Structures are given as structure tokens and as C-alpha cells.
């Protein structure tokens, strides 16, 4: 009888880990199978820009409203990937594929970094799937999340090549760092922070820093030089500079962001945060959670930067949630959980239940939103191709915030999910959407649309719509420039726009404005034509 060897046992564990990775990775993607347009807040806006990048030359109405300007900006992840995928599949499918790649990059990058740091495969990093549906994903910060997944692979590659000669290593990762800065500036900053603190930790462990070790550390930093030059070149494209730290509310949201999948935490989100915190306290108290020593300083550096990160950083809103949602992936990759079998089984069972509930609730929620989005897209056929579309959103009454397929403890109807829904008319009607993400991007409004375009804005309120329709009342409105120097897009809407999308879920009195001609009524919206007098 042949006894099993250690190599055979290792191969068996590797196979089990890879199978589990495939199962859980596929399960994490399930919500994408039920929808045409995933209802992530910024996603319709991003998808509309992808449509313009791919189809502007084919659709004359798009060319009238938008121009394309490929250039160096530290914000190209989706533009590059979706534009490439759109050569072999429709843009909408390419967009969903990009989201799937983002999810797989986060989970796969965690597994890769764990394998590099620990020198073996393990089941523990698979639980990164619990943190995929976070606040950054809800808001549709897909550029940042995709680039974060690439960062996890890049950093694991850096650690894996620690025995390489310095020259080839620096040259190779100069290219990697340059790619990161083009995908998203946050990912490059995170990579530089991780590499710098990791290398510093290796030099100060158990001994004082020597001149030679500092010199080698500075030499390794040469890999960042090309990326820094790319970032500097991007500033000439007119990048935003507005920065603000934020209030206590924004900091609490940032703290909860790894567990929240909504504008405010649901009961399930709060429970997930509480149970995860309790598990961490238990694991640390019982010394069941083993941290790779060389990752102590990188994790400490990430936590410190998380605390000091402003809410607005160079015009980027909610910058302070991006590191907190990244931390669970890096922490999981940097640790290993060791406990008695009965404890492992109990915790694995609880994690599996939490994961199943999250995937189920997201799937059901997305189905409900998809029906609403599809209803608008069908009704938008009344909009003339190439027309300018004004967006108005009234507050949603609390009694109208229940989603049919999900208990309120898991999710409620989110008004912010509809902020950018009107951008879908860019796909279906080549319409002009007044606050498409432009400026520091590859898409810009044409000259005729610049006066009524804002790179950062939200729908008008019904009160603003009514007041601005009256020339006398319009004089009392605040039309001063925002922090980007842009004036409100709707300040003279009766003369500058062609159609109005009014969203209220039946909770607001319809406007009595002579310039508005009703065309289409839906379950939560009305579409009006603007009549010139």
C-alpha cells in the first residue's frame, strides 16, 4: 500500500481551495445575472459615457451633444476596459462584464496576496466575498474598486519578487505603477503606501536603519517616478483641486462603509458590522488571528491614512470611504485564522449564512430596481433623439420606500439610486444629460452644451423647477458657481432644455407650469415636453 505524500496532501488542499474559490466567486456574481442595468448610483452615468466613447461617430445626435478627447487622466479604468470589450460585445454587456471583473479582481487579488504572504493556499481569504458589496460598490465607484483589485495583484507581485535583482524589479514595477496611476490615482497611492511601508518594515525589524538600507529603499522608490510624471502631466488637463475634510456624519459613514450597501445602513448592515467587530475582538483576545509580521506597518499606515483622509479630495467626493472598504481585503490577506475545529465550523456556518443573505438581498433589490429602470427606458421613446433632458426629483415619502422583494431590514428604496437614471436616455435616445461626468474624463459636452453642463450635480427639486419657470421668482434663486466654478444647469430651463423627467413615486403634487406638456406617465415618473411660448 502506497502512503500519501506531503506533496499529495498539499495538492489536495490546493484543489479544494481553488474549487471553493470558483464556487464563492460565481455566487458573488449572481446579482449581475438578473439585471440589464445594475442599479449602482453612478453606474448609469458611467455607462452613458462608455456609450458615447464607442458610438459617437455612428450616431449624429451624439456627436451634436458630446465630444471625445482621449488623453492622460488618472481615471481611465472603465474607459479602457469597456471600450476594448465593446469590440466583441454590446456596451451594456461590456459594462456588466466590467463589474464582474471588478468583483473577481477584489476576491482574486485577496487570494493572491494571501498566497504570496503565507506561501500556501488557504480557505481563509475566500471570505473576502463578504465585503464585496460595500458602500463604494453601492455608489458605483467602479473605477476605484477595479483599480483596487489590480493593486492587490500588483502588491502581491512586488512581495513575490523580493529575491529579484533590483534593476529588473524596478523596471518591471515602474510599468505596473504607471498602469495603476492611469487606472485610478487612488490605486497608485495605495500601492506606493503599501510598498513603501512594507519595505521600511523589512529594514527596521529588530535593528536600526543603516545608511545602506535607506539607500536601497530610495532606489526602490525609483519605480514610482514614471507614474508621478504621468500624474503631473494629467494636471495640465484641468484636474479638480477642491478638498474638504467633512463632518462627523461623513466619518461615521466611512467607518461603516465596508458593511453598508446603501445610502444609510440597514438593520442587516448594522448587524454585519456588529458581528464582524465581535469576531475580531474574540479572534484577537484568543490569539486565533495570526498576522504576518511584515504587514503590521503597512496595515498601520493604511489605518492612519484612513483617519486623516478628507471627504472631498481634489474634487473627488467620498474619498474617505475608499481606504476603509479596501482594508478588509488587505487584512484578510495578511492574516490567518486558527481555532479548534468546532469553532471554525461555527464561524464558517455564520459567515456562510451572512454571505447567502447578502447575495439574496442584493439580487432581489436589483431585480426591483431593474423593473423601474426598464419602465423608464421604454417610456423614453417619446424623447426626441438628441434632445436636452432636464432631471427633477422630489423626495420619496417613507411609505413609498418599500421594495417588493426585500424586507426593510435588508434594504429600502434609495432615492439616490435614481440620481443618474436619466443618463440611460443617452443610450436609448442620444439625449443630452446635463450632469454627465465630464471635465477630468475622456468625454466633454460640445460648445453649444457647455453653458448647461455640470460635471458634478444632482436633479433639480420641484420647487427650483417652479421658481425658475417664473422670470421674477427666478431672480431669487442662487445661481452662483459651485466649487468647480460651474453655474446651475437648470437656471434658464424653459429656453435651454427640451424635455423634463420628473420623478416622485406619486408623492408630490405635479407642477402647474404652462411650459410643460405631459407626454408619458409611469409608476414613479412623468415625462414632459417643454413648450416654447
Quick description:
This protein is α+β, with helices and mostly antiparallel strands and 533 residues long. The chain has helices at residues 6-28, 43-55, 60-65, 77-85, 91-118, 135-138, 142-160, 166-183, 185-204, 211-220, 225-235, 248-256, 267-285, 296-308, 322-334, 341-379, 424-429, 462-469, 471-474, 493-496; strands at 66-68, 289-291, 312-313, 316-317, 335-337, 389-393, 443-445, 499-503, 516-521, 525-530.
Summary keywords:
four-stranded mixed sheet; two-stranded antiparallel ribbon; 533 residues; alpha+beta; 52% helix; 10 strands; globular
Give a description of the structure.
- By secondary structure, this protein is α+β, with helices and mostly antiparallel strands.
- The chain has 20 helices and 10 strands.
- The chain folds into 2 domains: 6-34 and 70-338, no CATH class; 364-530, no CATH class.
- Helices cover 52% and strands 7% of the residues.
- The strands form 4 sheets. The protein has a 4-stranded mixed beta sheet with strand order 6-8-10-9, with no helix packed on it. A two-stranded antiparallel ribbon has the order 1-7. Strands 2-5 form a two-stranded antiparallel sheet.
- A hairpin with a 2-residue loop joins strand 3 and strand 4.
- Helix 7 (142-160) runs antiparallel to helix 8 (166-183), helix 8 (166-183) packs parallel to helix 11 (225-235) and helix 9 (185-204) packs across helix 14.
- The model has no long low-confidence stretch (mean pLDDT 92).
Per-chain topology:
Layout lengths: L5 H23 L14 H13 L4 H6 E3 L8 H9 L5 H28 L16 H4 L3 H19 L5 H18 L1 H20 L6 H10 L4 H11 L12 H9 L10 H19 L3 E3 L4 H13 L3 E2 L2 E2 L4 H13 E3 L3 H39 L9 E5 L30 H6 L13 E3 L16 H8 L1 H4 L18 H4 L2 E5 L12 E6 L3 E6 L3
Parallel strand pairs: 6-8
Antiparallel strand pairs: 1-7, 2-5, 3-4, 8-10, 9-10
Helix pairs in contact: 2-4, 4-5, 5-7, 5-15, 7-8, 7-9, 8-9, 8-11, 9-14, 14-15
